[in-house]
UniProtKB/TrEMBL annotation:
Residues 1-26 form the signal peptide. The keyword Ion transport does not apply. It comes from the Bacteria. The lineage of its organism: Bacteria, Bacillati, Actinomycetota, Actinomycetes, Micromonosporales. This is Sialidase domain-containing protein. CDD domains: Sialidase_non-viral. The keyword Transmembrane does not apply. Pfam families: BNR_2. It comes from Actinoplanes nipponensis. Residues 474-492 have a biased composition (Polar residues). Residues 468-509 are annotated as: Disordered. Residues 290-425 form the Sialidase domain. Coiled coil: none annotated. Keywords: Signal.
Length: 509
C-alpha cells in the first residue's frame, strides 16, 4: 500500500534455530520456493521523486485452494516493491500438483506486465477460489505521478494458468480520493458469485486531512465476466474510516460477513482517535443489503518494532484476519493486540462467535512465546474444524544484537473452537527481517497467505535473504495436515520492553 506507519527461496546462509521440542505433522513438507526472479526486470515505469525500488523483492502474498480440486493451488504477490507504495506489478503462481511445483504468471494490471493496464504501479493482490476451477483476483492499481487510482478484478478459469476479464471496478482521478485495502471472496454457496470490498478514502487534495472512508462492494454473479457498480455497505461519518475489509461466507446458510477495522478520529488531521475497533456487518441476501455494524473486539495493537533498537516494522497490526468453520459456521477473528502484555507489545489474539456474529468471546492468546512480539497473523479453518494460524515472532533474538533481527515463521493449530493453540510447527528457517524492503518500516507484507483444502493447511509466505540487495525476499509455500504431537518451546531471554505508541495511517498501500 502506498503510505503506512505499520507495517522464498530460503537462504542457506540463515541458520535454522528451532526451539526445543519435537512435533510430528501428518502430510507436512519442507518449504517450496515459489518465486523465481522478476518478470519485470528492466521495466522503468513508476519512478517518482524520492521513491526507492527494491528489484526482485516479493512481498504480501495471498493464497487460495480449491476444495473441489485439491491439487490446485493459486497465489499472488507484489513484485519489485517501491518504498512509497505498490510495486512494478503483481505476479500469480499456480500449482497443479498440490504445491510441489509452481509456475509464475504476471497479472495484466500494470504497465510493466505484458498487455497490462495503463497504470504505473499495483498493490494488494488477493485471490479466492470458487466452485469448479474458477479463481478470482483483486488488485489495487494507481499512478505514482498522478492521482489516478482504482480497484481491478480479474478471473482465471484454468486454475491460475491464465487470467482474463480484467475489469476496472472503480477509477478515481480526483486528487484526494483513494481506494485502498481491497480483497475478494468467492461464494461457496452460490457458484459464479464473488465479492470485492475495499475502503474509499476522501482526503484533502494534498492528502493531509481525512474527511471520511466508507466500505465499497462490487459483486459478480456470472463467474467474473461482469461486476456490479460499487455500492457503500459500511457508511462512515466525519473523520471516520474503515480499513482491511474481508468477507467470509457461511456455505450452509449463504450469509456473508464483512470484517474491517473502524477508526474514528478526533478531527481531520487523523492524529488522534476516539476509538479503533474491529467490526462486522452481515448480509442475508447475497450482498444486496447489510446489517448495522457489530463490534467484534477493541484494537489494542501497538507499533511493532525491533525490541533491541526500536526500528519500525511494518506488519499486520490494525488489520483483521477473519475465518469461518465450513461445517458449523462458527466465526473467528485473529489480530494483533496487547491485552496479554498490559499494552507493552503485540501478541496474536483470537476471538470467536458461535452465533453468527451476534456475540463474541473474550480474546484468546494464540502464540506460544509470550516474552516477545508476535505479528502478522493469518487464519483458516479446515474441514475437520481445526483452526490454523500462521504468524511471525522474534523469539531467537538475543539481548545486545542490534545488527540483525532473527525472525521465525510459525503455524499453530487448535481443535474446533480455537481455545487451545498448543500444537505448533516452525515452517521456515529463521531469517533476518532487517533485510526486508523499507516501506514505512521493514516490510514483507501487511498480510500473508493461508488457506485450507480438506484437512490441510496451505501457507504462502515471505522470508528474506542475507546479502542479496537484488533479491531481498522470496515467496515460499508449505502445507501441513493434522498435528499428531504437541510441541514445547523455550522462552526467549529478551529483556522486557514496551513498544512505542502506534500511529494510525489512513491508507496502507
Amino acid at each position: 500500500m502506498r503510505t503506512s506507519g505499520r507495517f522464498a527461496a530460503v537462504s542457506s546462509l540463515v541458520v535454522l534455530a528451532l526451539a526445543s521440542g519435537t512435533a510430528s505433522w501428518a502430510g507436512s513438507r519442507d518449504p517450496v520456493q515459489v518465486s523465481h526472479g522478476s518478470p519485470f526486470a528492466g521495466c522503468t515505469v513508476g519512478a517518482a521523486p524520492g521513491s526507492v525500488l527494491y528489484p526482485g523483492a516479493e512481498v504480501e502474498p495471498s493464497v487460495t485452494a480449491n476444495r473441489f480440486r485439491p491439487s490446485e493451488v493459486v497465489g499472488a504477490w507484489q513484485q519489485d516493491r517501491w518504498s512509497d507504495g505498490g510495486a512494478h506489478g503483481l505476479v500469480a503462481g499456480y500449482s497443479r500438483n498440490g504445491g510441489k511445483t509452481f509456475t509464475e504468471v504476471p497479472w495484466p494490471v500494470s504497465r510493466c506486465a505484458p498487455g497490462g493496464l495503463n497504470y504505473e504501479r499495483a498493490s494488494d493482490p488477493w485471490v479466492s477460489a470458487g466452485p469448479g476451477s474458477v479463481a478470482y483476483g483483486s488488485a489495487l492499481v494507481f499512478d505514482a505521478n498522478s492521482p489516478r487510482n482504482g480497484v481491478v478484478a480479474l478471473t482465471s478459469y484454468d486454475g491460475g494458468r491464465s487470467w482474463r476479464n480484467v475489469t476496472e471496478l472503480i477509477v478515481d482521478t480526483e486528487p484526494g480520493i483513494v481506494d485502498d485495502k481491497n480483497s475478494v471472496t468467492a461464494d461457496p454457496a452460490r457458484p459464479g458469485s464473488a465479492y470485492q470490498v475495499w475502503d474509499r478514502l476522501r482526503l484533502s487534495p494534498d492528502g493531509s486531512l481525512l474527511f471520511t472512508g466508507p466500505t465499497l462492494l462490487s459483486v459478480t454473479r456470472d463467474l467474473g465476466r461482469t461486476w456490479s457498480r460499487p455500492q457503500v455497505i459500511v457508511d462512515t461519518g466525519e473523520f471516520q474510516q474503515t480499513i482491511g475489509n474481508v468477507i467470509v461466507v457461511n456455505r450452509r446458510t449463504g450469509e456473508l460477513y464483512d470484517f474491517y477495522e473502524s477508526i474514528q478520529y478526533t478531527d481531520a488531521t487523523a492524529t488522534a482517535t476516539v476509538f479503533t475497533r474491529y467490526e462486522m456487518v452481515r448480509s442475508t441476501d447475497a450482498g444486496r443489503s447489510w446489517s448495522r455494524p457489530v463490534v467484534v473486539a477493541d484494537d489494542t495493537g501497538v507499533q511493532d518494532v525491533d525490541p533491541n533498537t526500536g526500528a519500525v516494522l511494518r506488519t499486520g497490526v490494525g488489520i483483521p484476519f477473519p475465518a469461518i468453520d465450513p461445517r458449523t459456521g462458527e466465526l473467528y477473528l485473529a489480530y494483533e493486540g496487547t491485552d496479554f502484555t498490559g499494552g507493552a507489545y503485540n501478541q496474536i489474539q483470537l476471538v470467536r462467535s458461535p452465533d453468527r456474529g451476534r456475540t463474541w468471546s473474550a480474546p484468546t492468546r494464540v502464540n506460544s512465546d509470550t516474552t516477545v512480539p508476535a505479528f502478522t497473523p493469518s487464519i483458516a479453518v479446515a474441514e475437520n474444524g481445526d483452526v490454523g494460524v500462521t504468524y511471525y515472532d522474534v523469539r531467537t533474538l538475543r539481548p545486545g544484537n542490534t545488527t540483525t533481527l532473527p525472525t521465525s515463521t510459525w503455524l499453530t493449530v487448535s481443535s474446533r473452537g480455537g481455545r487451545h493453540f498448543d500444537r505448533e510447527r516452525q515452517i521456515a528457517p529463521v531469517f533476518d527481517m532487517l533485510q526486508a524492503p523499507q516501506a514505512g518500516g521493514y516490510f514483507i507484507g501487511d498480510y500473508q497467505g493461508l488457506a485450507t483444502a480438506g484437512d490441510q493447511f496451505r501457507a504462502l509466505f515471505v522470508t528474506t535473504h542475507s546479502g542479496r540487495p537484488d533479491n531481498r525476499t522470496d515467496v515460499s509455500y508449505t502445507e501441513s495436515g493434522s498435528l499428531s504431537t504437541s510441541r514445547t518451546t523455550t522462552a526467549s531471554p529478551l529483556r522486557a520492553f514496551r513498544a512505542p505508541a502506534r500511529q494510525h495511517p489512513t491508507m496502507r498501500r
